[in-house]
Automatic annotation (TrEMBL):
Residues 7-294 form the Aromatic amino acid beta-eliminating lyase/threonine aldolase domain. It comes from Phaseolus coccineus (Scarlet runner bean). Residues 249-276 form a coiled coil. InterPro entries: ArAA_b-elim_lyase/Thr_aldolase, Low_specificity_L-TA-like, PyrdxlP-dep_Trfase, PyrdxlP-dep_Trfase_major, PyrdxlP-dep_Trfase_small. Its EC number is 4.1.2.48. Keywords: Coiled coil, Lyase, Pyridoxal phosphate. It catalyses: L-allo-threonine = acetaldehyde + glycine; L-threonine = acetaldehyde + glycine. This is low-specificity L-threonine aldolase. CDD domains: TA_like.
Length: 363
């Protein structure tokens, strides 16, 4: 019998709080296609203000937020976007910018800290003199925090420098800010300052902020009106969407201040896991709510086997390859959950070692 479930698979797993459910039940709504749903309008107005942009648009998912943003910036056939080779847009969004938008991706290597070398970004920009044979570079995409790099933060200085490169070459800058509030809290930089250089930002409400559904795109009035039309084209125009936006407004009010605690608990677990022989976490790279746990070879088990064993204790997480586990914190993970998870990790590792010794005939 599992004592309890501790879901560390992602910050997308949170359940709506009672306050969110009550706000959803009493949300003021209207048809957001024929006019403006009042709760949606309130959310979009609040998010645009928070991020220092002219306007905002609520969309069903972060994937759609990125797709719409790239397609609005790259609305001419033959466009190319520069993005990280390990970015969410390039790896986890089914190549939508190409398959649906005809936008050509030009990847630049992501460094371990989530950045791309600025000289490599500049070198990837197509020379307009080669327009007969080259796609036309129109956009640079960054990701902050960077998911596949373990939730690493891009500094405001780095972001501003990429913004300068974009301006110098007449390009636009989009930030996949699925976890931009995590970055803002971890860096101690106001979120509007962190994204100041960007022409557009996608923000996930359904991750660390804990809303059940949705993302928001922010940008100029003209950009958002084009984005609104494209959202409808993609089937993302929603009617009484205020039911979802009401929950997101509660999330904004209640959960931004909890992000720092998520980050602290992640550090606590990382330190504890490093005390377990056969597991290692690079604690210097645990900057926000995510971490990667390396399962050392000598442990006699694999990441997926350990993942399965931990599930038997109620600890849910993701195996990334044969020797790496991913752990993601959110506001519904408590301090006692951290201690419970540590004890389960220790038991699962001990069991793995015992089974390994038994099969190898060791004492
Ligand atoms: C960095 C990043 N961008 C975008 C997304 C896409 O968001 P969604 O799952 O809502 O499509 C995710 C994860 O889901 C993500 O981690
Ligand atoms: C896996 C990825 O698509 C998701 N955004 C997550 O971080 O859980």
């Amino acid at each position: 019998m599992v004592a309890k479930i501790v879901d560390l698979r992602s910050d997308t797993v949170t359940k709506p709080t009672e306050a969110m459910r009550s706000a959803m039940a009493s949300a003021e709504v209207d048809d957001d296609v024929l006019g403006r749903d009042p709760s949606c309008f309130r959310l979009e107005t609040e998010i645009a203000k928070l991020l220092g942009k002219e306007a905002a648009l609520f969309v069903p998912s972060g994937t759609m937020a990125n797709l719409i943003s790239v397609l609005v910036h790259c609305d001419i056939r033959g466009s190319e976007v520069i993005l990280g080779d390990d970015s969410h847009i390039h790896i986890y969004e089914n190549g939508g910018i190409a398959t649906l938008g005809g936008v050509h991706p030009r990847t630049v290597k992501n460094n371990e800290d989530g950045t791309m070398d600025i000289d490599l970004i500049e070198a990837a920009i197509r020379d307009p003199k080669g327009e007969l044979v080259y796609p036309t570079t129109r956009l640079i995409c960054l990701e902050n925090t960077h998911g596949n790099c373990g939730g690493r933060c891009l500094s405001v200085e780095y972001t501003d420098r990429v913004g300068e490169v974009a301006k110098k070459h007449g390009l636009k800058l989009h930030i996949d800010g699925a976890r931009i509030f995590n970055a803002s809290v971890a860096l101690g930089v106001p979120v509007d300052r962190l994204v100041q250089a960007a022409d557009s930002v996608s923000v996930c409400l359904s991750k660390g902020l804990g809303a059940p559904v949705g993302s928001v795109i922010v940008g100029s009035n003209s950009f958002i009106s084009k984005a609104r039309r494209l959202r409808k084209t993609l089937g993302g125009g929603m009617r009484q969407v205020g039911i979802l936006c009401a929950a997101a407004l509660v999330a904004l009010q209640e959960n931004v201040e909890k992000l720092e605690s998520d980050h602290k608990k992640a550090k606590l677990l990382a330190d504890g896991l490093n005390e377990i022989k056969g597991l290692s976490v690079d604690t210097s790279s645990v900057e926000t709510n995510m971490m990667f746990v390396e399962v050392e070879e000598g442990l006699g088990t694999t990441a997926s086997k350990l993942c399965k064993d931990l599930e038997d204790y109620g600890i849910l997480l993701m195996a990334i390859g044969s020797s790496r586990l991913r752990i993601v914190f959110h506001h519904q993970i408590s301090a006692s959950d951290v201690q419970y998870a540590l004890s389960c990790f220790q038991q699962a590792v001990n069991n793995g070692v015992r089974n390994e010794n038994a099969t190898s005939g060791a004492d």
